[in-house]
Amino acid sequence: MADYIQSDKDLIRLYLSGDEKAFETLLLRNKDRVFGYIVSKVRNQNLANDIFQDVFIKVVRTLKNGSYNEEGKFLPWILTISHNMIVDHFRRSNKMHMISESSSKSDDYNIFSVLQLKDSNVEDDLIKEQIEADVVRLVQYLPEEQREVVQYRIFKGMSFKDIAEKEDISINTALGRMRYALINLRKLVDKHNVSITA
After folding, report:
1. FRET partner for 182 with CA separation of 20 to 30 A, picked from 93, 142, 158, 159?
2. Do 65 and 145 reside in the same domain of the chain?
3. What is the Cα–Cα distance from 165 to 117, expressed in whole angstroms?
4. d(CA 45, CA 38)
């Protein structure tokens, strides 16, 4: 290895060409930032160690199978993997509970109510962030009229009266579209196997 400080990109290229020392350098260069990030989220040293090891196993596998995109920066990429693994851990954890089948099937069940977490902490924030991303993705599958009402009501905080005026429809029509949107979202949650946790 050369004496000058090599970029992460150079170290990855060297590692993929068989230089194991290059990966060791890459790991040493980034481990404090990655481990610090994980500890700040899980607040448990032993758990952070486990997730940290899983992250770097995934990094090695991704690099070796050629799936790493060199256009992105290496550290943000690892932090994204870390974030996803932390979310996965909390989802699997016994601390999290699934919305029961009975509540999810009732007509007055609101899929967005799980986003209103009372005692917010780091775990809740991570889960809420992931749920929001999943729900936003599912909203795109709704019929246009229902999607618009959801976007106005949930994402823009508009009242049904304001929505009715904006869309030139009755308040009852706006409420009906929202109701059908929620029914369809419940079906989409099942169809796409999305975990809605609180």
Report:
1. 93
2. no
3. 31
4. 9
Residue 2, pLDDT score: 47
C-alpha 65 chain-centroid distance: 24
Domain that holds residue 109: 101-191
d(CA 46, CA 133): 29
Task: State which amino acid sits at residue 3.
Answer: D
Q: What's the predicted TM-score (pTM) here? A: 0.49
- CATH number reported for the structural domain that contains residue 108 in this entry: 1.10.10.10
- Render pLDDT for 5-63 as a digit per residue (tens, 0 to 9): 788 888 998 999 999 999 999 999 999 999 998 988 888 888 899 999 999 999 999 88
Q: Which of 92, 115, 147 is the last residue of a domain?
A: 92
Same domain membership, residue 63 and residue 41: yes
Nearest in space to 122 (alpha carbons), one of 87, 82, 151: 87
Q: How many CA within 13 A on the CB side of residue 75?
A: 12
Cβ proximity of 197 and 91 under 8 Å:
yes
Q: Considering only residues 127 and 64, tell me which one the structure prediction assigns the higher pLDDT.
A: 64
CATH at 20: 1.10.1740.10
As a whole number, the mean pLDDT across the chain is 78
Radius of gyration of the CA atoms of the chain, in A: 22
Report the domain count for the chain: 2
